[in-house]
Every structure is written in C-alpha cells, then in structure tokens.
Amino acid sequence: MVFMPAKYRNKEFAIGTYHIFQVGKGVIFADDTDFQKYLSNLRRFVPETDSKILAYCLLPNSLDLLVRQSTPRAITKLMRKLTTAYSMYKKGSPFRGVYKAKLLAGDREALDTSRQLHRVSLTTTKIGPLQIRSTFSSYPYSSYRLYLDKYTSKWIDTLELSRLVPDYQRFVEA
Question: Which of 122, 96, 82 is nearest to 28 (CA)?
C-alpha cells in the first residue's frame, strides 16, 4: 500500500464559506505560547491566500475556523501552510488526520456557525496547569472579542457576519 503525502493531495473547494475543523491526537495547544504561535501563523498566512477568516475558536484539543475563500484552492493553500508551520514548530504533527471542511449553505448558516464557535469557549478550559474559566468575551483564543470591537483587517473580517443581525453580542449570548 502506498501513502501519498498531504502535499500531493489537491483539494479543490467551491468558492464560498466553510466551517473548517481539526482535532488533535491529544493536546494541540499546551500553553499560551502554542496558541499565540498558531494565531501568528493565521495572521501571516491568510493574506497570502485568497481567503478571509470570519471567525475562529482554538481549544486545547481542537480548532474551528470559519473561512471564506474566493478561489477554489485557497483553503487548501491556507491549511497546508498552517498545518505544516505548526507541525514544524511542535516537531511533529499534533493533529489527528487531516482537517475537515463543510461548505455552509449561505449567510444564515455562516452566522449560526459563528455563534456556535463563539459559544463553545464558555466553559472551564484546562490547559496544562492552567485552568481558564471564561465568559464569552474573556476567552483569549476566540474571535469573539474582535467581534465586540468590530475589528477587521487583512486576515479577519468581523463585519461581514455581524452586520446580518442588529446586535451580534445579544445574538451570541442569548
């Protein structure tokens, strides 16, 4: 049996918005430095691809991204760069298999998915010896605080979804 390295897989996705999720073999992000490294890579690689992050939530053993791509291979390029760079940083892949990507049907499904991503962090999260009890807006590894600040840049766009509801904070926290 022959296994093809991931770099030889050509995934082509329709232009649209995707919920991308990836789980770890165990802990992906062991401490704040790990989380910050992944976010730094995200900020670095998104502008290099034809994609935009609409929302994200990183948990110790999984990650969720809401990504809009404008060319068919943008997600493949982005995830290849993210996975490779983070695996090199960790000196081995912390991920269980390859990422999954679900095409979302439209703005309403994207909005509901962003709500789900932002609500998942409202738990007690154990990161090594750290224990983070978070409120919606205090979890440091989610895009929710950026939504509350109406932040947008080359790598993340919080206005695209928040404009769809009169009060995004009330929408998420209700």
Answer: 96
Question: Is the distance from CB of 75 to CB of 98 less than 8 angstroms?
Answer: no
Q: What token pair was written down for 6?
A: 């991931």
Q: What is the DSSP letter of 114?
A: H
Task: Tell me which residue has tokens 């991204």.
Answer: 65
Domains and CATH numbers, the chain: 13-173 (3.30.70.1290)
Query: How far is Cα 46 from Cα 138, in angstroms, rounded to an integer?
Result: 24
**Tokens 């999720």, residue?**
21
Mean per-residue pLDDT, 82-106:
94
Residues, the chain? 174
Q: In a 10 Å sphere around its CB, with 0-12 CB exposed, 13-18 middle and 19+ buried, how is residue 126 labelled? A: exposed
CB contact at 8 A, 29 and 141: yes
pLDDT, tens only, 126-137: 555 455 555 667
Amino acid at site 144: Y
Whether 45 contacts 78, CB under 8 Å: yes
Element (H, E) at 111: helix 107-119
Question: What is the C-alpha to C-alpha distance for residues 115 and 106, in angstroms, rounded to an integer?
Answer: 14
- Which residues are registered as beta bridge partners of 59? 62
